[in-house]
Amino acid sequence: MSSASDILDGVLTTPLNGEHVARAARMVPFAGYDMPVQYEGILAEHLWTRANAGLFDVSHMGQAFLIGPDHATTAAALEALIPADIRNLAPGRQRYSQLLADDGGILDDLMVTRPVDPADDGKLFLVVNAACKVADFAHIRAKLPAVITLVEAPERALVALQGPKAAAVMARLSPESDALAFMAARWTAVAGVAAHVSRSGYTGEDGFEISVADTDAVALWRALLAEPEVKPIGLGARDSLRLEAGLCLYGHDIDTTTSPVEAALVWSIQKRRREEGGFPGAARIQRELAEGPARVRVGLKPEGRAPAREGTEIVADGRVVGRVTSGGFGPSVGGPIAMGYVEAAFAKPGTALDLVVRGKPLPAQVVTMPFVPNGYKR
Amino acid sequence: MSVRYTQDHEWVRLDGDVATVGITKYAQEQLGDVVFVELPEIGRTVTKGVELAVVESVKAASDVFAPLAGEVVEVNSALPDAPQGVNEDPEGAAWFVKLRVADQGEFDGLMDAVSYKAFVDSL
């Protein structure tokens, strides 16, 4: 029997490792796991996902259930750790949020789902980043009241089917999933495999995240790849897709030094929580909401063709006013794109800045994100 | 006319005292999709091992090093507008730079095709 975290030679593997290797994916170490960075090439995989449907193995991510006596109690326990409104999260709905440190810095970002089935009242399903999961789960456990239990689910695999044709695939393999609205979730079957399906993802496209028992992962993977719209996609294209979508990558665009307000994630803090507070760092976040943060995450469009990578200094008025946190080539944009933090005075779209690439200041402009229109089902 | 190779995966073809420099098929396979190429100024004098050009893939930037000393006499001006050529024909049309060679002895010290293949196979 396999597990979502089999250990081979000190490197963790997902239940789909053999599938990646059999398809001659280029494998790289990522967050302690042996993961596919590309199959046929990042550019082709990126463009395939934007036009068709890409299948990603994200089984390295951390899945867990918070289990309490009723929704109000479990939601209150989680709300003590994150700034999203979970109390008013409807059954079958999902929210993006952040685990916060006491100073308002971001410990990790995560997805929270309230099960739709009344029999699951009091349960919340969490998905956190692979590199943070051990620390996240320890942090959550340390803060939970006695009546709430965190149950990790290392025996579950997770795949993401992303792209404009993902819905057509699911209409054939899982009609109940195809009927889901954006940021909704349910337990159902996909190609005959019992699964927890949410209509979400991290590419800017319409799509689904599908959680299944690790023993079913290969069957699901093969069933999805048997559909003509679907190709396997590596972590390389996942990164360029999420960058074009203006989405943060933990450890790069957000970390313990950045608050959700600085990170331009205010949309993920619902009105009740902004007003009431009651989450770690609430004082800082409410102050930043009222006064505006000193620095803010922005999109950057370099002129010319040279990509500005993470760490690139952002210069204005002859001094450094910020730094790139993610940058590279946007295959769908057809040119370089970046995001980074700048002093608030330089955050307005249209502001001209210089990005210092290999010692040379290259002109760039602050732009609104996403870099490509998102395809979420509304 | 012969071609030699460096451990940094540049190839060099010597015609008279002019060396044409590019990156090898192996290098472009490792890089993946090339999206940007930065070439030096014509007239620049370089010593062996200095950064001569930059090639960027979707994921990362890599330096192209001068395989031998010389003066930059020509650059492949088609590359900046069509960097994907590096993936398509790295050891042909997608050459990077031509150098007027200062010391042809440096060329003789580079790996020949057989040695380079053995080197790549050892990686």
Describe this structure in words.
By secondary structure, chain A is α+β, with helices and mostly antiparallel strands. Among the domains of chain A are: 133 residues, Gyrase A, domain 2, CATH 3.30.1360.120; 74 residues, Beta Barrel (Elongation Factor Tu (Ef-tu), domain 3). Chain A is built from 10 helices and 21 strands. A 6-stranded mixed beta sheet of chain A has the order 12-13-14-11-5-15. In chain A, helix 2 crosses helix 8. The radius of gyration of chain A is 20 Å and the shape is globular. With 123 residues, chain B is of the alpha+beta class. Chain B has a single domain, classed as OB fold (Dihydrolipoamide Acetyltransferase, E2P) (Beta Barrel). Helix content of chain B is 20%, strand content 37%. Chain B has 4 helices and 9 strands. The longest helix of chain B has 9 residues. The mean pLDDT of chain B is 95. Chains A and B meet through helix 2 and helix 8 of A and strand 4 and strand 6 of B. Chain A: Its EC number is 2.1.2.10.
Principal-axis shape of chain A equals: globular
User: What is the 3D shape of chain B?
Assistant: globular
Largest sheet report of chain A: 6 strands, mixed
Runs of chain B in which pLDDT lies below 50 for 5 or more consecutive residues are none
Structural class of chain A: alpha+beta
Order of helical and strand elements of chain B = EEEHEEEEEHEHH
CATH architecture of chain B: Beta Barrel
Number of helices of chain A: 10
Mean pLDDT metric of chain B:
95
What is the rounded Rg of chain A? 20 Å
**How many strands in all of chain A?**
21
**What's the CATH class label of chain B?**
Mainly Beta
Q: Structural class, from helix and strand content of chain B? A: alpha+beta
Query: What is the CATH superfamily of chain B?
Result: RNA polymerase II/Efflux pump adaptor protein, barrel-sandwich hybrid domain
**Beta-strand content estimate of chain A:** 25-35%
Bin the helical content of chain B. 10-25%
Q: How far from one another are the termini of chain A?
A: 40 Å
- CATH topology heading of the domain at 16-59 and 155-243 in chain A: Gyrase A, domain 2
Name the assembly state.
Answer: heterodimer
CATH superfamily of the domain at 16-59 and 155-243 in chain A: Probable tRNA modification gtpase trme, domain 1
Share of helical residues of chain A: 10-25%
